[in-house]
Amino acid sequence: MKVLFVYAESEQGGFKPMGISLLSSILLKEGHDRLLFDTSIYDINIKGRVHEILTSEAQLVYPHVNMPDAAIKRISKDFALSFNETIENYKPDLVAFSTTSLMYVLVETLVRELKSKKRPKLAIGGIHALSYTDDLVSSGMFDYICYGEGENTIKEIVKHVAGEIEASDIPNIVVKIGGKYIKNKPSVIISNLDDLPFYDWSLYMDYHFWRPYQGSAYRMGDYQSSRGCPYKCLFCFYNTFYKANKEVKTIRFYSADRCISEMEELTKCYDLHFWKFHDSDFLLRPEKDFAELMGEYNKRIGLPFVCNTNANSVSKEKAKLLKSANCKSVTLGLESGSERIRRQVLGKEVSNKKIIEAVSFLKNEGLRVCTSNMLGLPKETENDLRETISLNRIASPDLAEPSFFYPFKGTELGDNCYKNGFVKDHSSELVNLRTDYVMEMPQISNETLFGINRAFPLYMNLPEWLDQIIRLAERYDNTGHKVYQTLHHIVQNKINKRLDKKQ
């Protein structure tokens, strides 16, 4: 059997999707042929809500890096036309789409413009398929919609395409039979992650490995050492997964030896310089297990790495363990500086005191700390946004990264936004959370929101006595633009000098 994986993404970021990597490995062991179609290498011209000045703002958060030629691959050809040519030449039996909700318009475009005389079977999985199952059923475009873990499901889908089993035998899917959709029962989640095969990266080209970090380019590996999350955040898809699959909230870990053995093999095979852990909270492991993982990593890998965490998981001991294993940077989910918003809107039980303490523990070990901040949350006022700026200033991370909130369907918070009519129609548009906001709320204007987003890096890099001037930079008039450009130049020079010292 021939399976064409489609990675739907508009930005080239040196990322190797872990879901596709695992599914490809499983099919490889089953003796099937695989190929990857990656939309990120195409210059895609699809409407998006990109504000006219925000491209320069991103430079304050993501400094320019001179990437090697191997890291860059861009094709001016129409991506849908190229997709049709790939279908025609490769002749897959199954096309499997992996996408986020932000990028789903790319998938929709490819399917609607599919012109193959012998149409292959189409499957879609991932977060979007889980959260937007009903919408995908209504579209009628897919033969298989996977709403659970796909590792066992993909094998069964291929068997069904080959005519070896009945559609009713396939777990975790909504399947089209005779023009009607039937939802099959979920399967039990994979309890022992060590049973899964190593990632298959043979699908990826050189440009999938190169990624910028702190002004330099590295060949970077992507890894997830756990699945699940015990927290109850109302904006997170994990709650949707547990509900759809009738599972209790749990978190599963790869064993330390399994993690390091796989990373060891991939490091040697692909000449890696750096690693990124994609766990939602890398520090959730019990301290003894975490110490074992970091000890084995330091002994057998030793490369610099970055990871994500929740402030509640940070301790002095774990910060020291990160440092000992050559961790360079930790991204911490701050989200909002308002405890009211975090508790009542986000369902996130973490205090300002704990956030400040967590940043301090990490920075005291010489680790770079980045906070992720969501702007434009439901019920969020301008004062709440000012609190986010204030908390970041008090905690003093090395980087405070702003992005706009997005109301994902299937999450409690996202569904409430749709129910209350806050969400604008953006179904035909690409969405980039650094630049695009798809909501309108009564308590704050979008102009105010965009202004604070634009000025956010200025507040983080300039002293408080300049706040009155920085506020002028929030305005979208001639005065605001001029002030912004002046302050932007000052901050850009400051960041460049900081990077030069580190190199």
Structure description:
Helix content is 40%, strand content 17%. It is an alpha/beta fold. The protein has two domains: 2-42 and 77-183, Rossmann fold (3-Layer(aba) Sandwich); 209-464, Aldolase class I (TIM Barrel, Alpha-Beta Barrel). Strands 2-1-3-4-5-6-7 form a seven-stranded mixed sheet, sandwiched between helices.
Radius of gyration: 23 Å
Beta-strand content: 15-25%
Q: Roughly how much helix do the residues carry, as a percent range?
A: 25-40%
Count the domains. 2
Number of helices: 18
The low-confidence runs, each spanning 5 or more residues with pLDDT under 50, are 49-55
The CATH topology of the largest domain is given as TIM Barrel
The biggest beta sheet reads: 7 strands, mixed
Q: Based on the structure given, which CATH architecture of the largest domain is correct?
A: Alpha-Beta Barrel
CATH class of the largest domain: Alpha Beta
Average pLDDT reading: 90
| Total strands | 16
Structural class: alpha/beta
